[in-house]
Specification:
Shape: globular
Distance between the termini: 27 Å
Low-confidence stretches: none
Number of helices: 10
Largest sheet: 6 strands, mixed
Oligomer: single chain
Radius of gyration: 20 Å
């Protein structure tokens, strides 16, 4: 088991007291593709980032268990965390325009990630960067390695970010809305690439998304989050048969070309969904 979380709570101090953004989340993840879906603000990204301890200093985090491969992350030192972040668990951010360093070439950034975790000289790291660009199916990787982020398309930038995360051969890949800034065609290409890499390397994947049809086709299991809680867990293939009214409401709000609706329904929320 790669990840085990029990009763995770994440709160932030406010003038009115502690406001909990994640409330009692429990989950496990092995060598599988786990999707986490829900609206913005439901706690998806906070839950994932807690595994890497990449939360704001103001966050108040408690958990009965917060483990990566048996390592207790709650009291782990910064030195121990650095051996996990990037090296054993990689994080793909939402938008390469804001995540890549604008004053470093794509190849230099990948080479930096390689050298930080695997060592070796500058020439070895530079060649590794080109090889990784080739693995993420970029044409003419030697040329692209010399380009700056502003010279890359959105799809190419996302592939560069994936290459950076793959450099240390991680066991877990956390993808936080990895296709949100891309058009539909490029989205499909990036997801096929991630699926191929995860399967070929035997990694675990945590995919955070708003796109329910996407995770239903791409993942093995799906967790549905609402207001900081997991309200339902289903097999991805059975997502269309989900029972919780919140999940049913999200599915009903999706537009369809097969059965178009004149107006999309508005989700009716029940206060009982907020129960801790």
């Amino acid at each position: 088991m790669l990840v085990r979380i029990d009763n995770l709570r994440i709160g932030f101090p406010t003038p009115q007291g502690l406001s909990e953004a994640v409330r009692g989340v429990s989950l496990t993840l092995g060598q599988e593709k786990l999707g986490i879906v829900g609206e913005s603000g439901s706690g998806k990204s906070l839950t994932a980032r807690s595994l890497l301890r990449l939360l704001p200093n103001s966050a108040v985090v408690t958990a009965d268990r917060l483990e990566f491969d048996g390592i207790d992350l709650r009291g782990a030192s910064e030195r121990k965390l650095r051996r996990i972040r990037g090296k054993r668990a990689g994080l793909i951010m939402q938008d390469p325009k804001y995540s890549l360093n604008p004053v470093m070439t794509a190849g230099a950034q990948i080479a930096e990630a390689w050298a930080a975790h695997k060592g070796g000289g500058r020439r070895v790291a530079a060649q590794a960067a080109v090889d990784l660009l080739e693995q993420v199916k970029i044409r003419d990787p030697a040329r692209v390695a010399k380009l700056y982020p502003h010279e890359l398309s959105g799809g190419m930038g996302q592939r560069v970010m994936i290459a950076m995360m793959l450099a240390p051969d991680p066991e877990l890949l956390i993808a936080d809305e990895p296709t949100s800034a891309l058009d539909a065609t490029v989205q499909a290409e990036i997801l096929r690439l991630i699926e191929d890499l995860v399967s070929r390397r035997g990694m675990g994947l945590m995919l955070i998304s708003h796109d329910l049809p996407l995770v239903s086709h791409f993942c093995d299991r799906v967790l549905v989050m609402y207001a900081g809680r997991i309200v339902e867990e289903v097999r991805a293939a059975d997502l269309h048969r989900a029972k919780h009214p919140y999940t049913r409401g999200l599915l009903a709000c999706l537009p369809s070309l097969v059965a178009p609706k004149e107006t999309l329904p508005v989700l009716t929320r029940d206060p009982s969904w907020n129960a801790a």
